[in-house]
Amino acid sequence: MASQHSAGGALLTGGLAAAGGLLFLLLFASLRALFALAEDRHSRRRRLGSNEPDEAAKSVRIVWMKPFYAHVEDTLSAAGWHMKPGAFWTLAFALGLAGLATGALLFQSLRSMALLAAMLAVLPYSLLRMSLVNRQLSARLNFLPAAELFYQCYLVNGSRHVRTALQRMIEERQLPGETQAIFEQLYRQLNIHHDDERTLRRFSLSFGHIWADYFASLLRVALSEGNNIADNLRELIDDMRKARMDDHAERHRLLEIRLANFTPVLFLGVFLTINFRLNAEASSLYYLSDPGGRSMLLNALVLIFGSFLMGLYLSRRKM
Prior knowledge:
The protein is mainly α.
């Protein structure tokens, strides 16, 4: 009887797994088809040049999609990710559907399904923000030498053309990796794109502090009005030199926040290791086989993920 019951339970689990996998594949395929259809219709209308049917879709895009789309596009560019916003949203939706399917298989409760789906759907954006914060921390250390180098190139160029000064600055190749890459991206986008405002906004986001905002404002004035910004650049560099000690203190606070983000993971790992070493069979039965134990682990992961998001938010506020 016990063997028949265990065999029936194994068949039921296998059937649920197959059904959940099939459901996930169907939802993912449907989502990709919808994205492909929308992109094909948009590109077809753009090729045909018919503006009238596009007005309603454009208004809907402005209300619902454009702010999120523009934010993700700016963040991807500032973080240095070579990914299109459409692919990013597709990845987030796919992970959310995978969370629903996995929650249905492992936990058999709507609450656990919703928690796992939400956590996996937000995971790509969290990793994107973490990548951006890492780039900001690395690049802002060398922003003062970069501003000084640009000031020298601007003076050598006769205080006339910002793009020529940027080109000369990049060709010098005296900046470290991330800072050099950000200024190369700035120069490339200023030459390729016609929207200088968006390019300078992404440049400021790549550094993520007020000095980059001031520097971008000076470049904006020089590009749009052709004014001489040599005196303003010298004042900005002097102010940055005076505030250098404050920047060091802020970086130490950010390091403390980042270290605190990983302590819950360490404590959870130590707790599970001790339990499995003391009684591996009972721990495996409770944490893996019992739905209550799996739900407890999921709640712990959700709390850890929430603390990680809080750390990212505090890092953003500090910067």
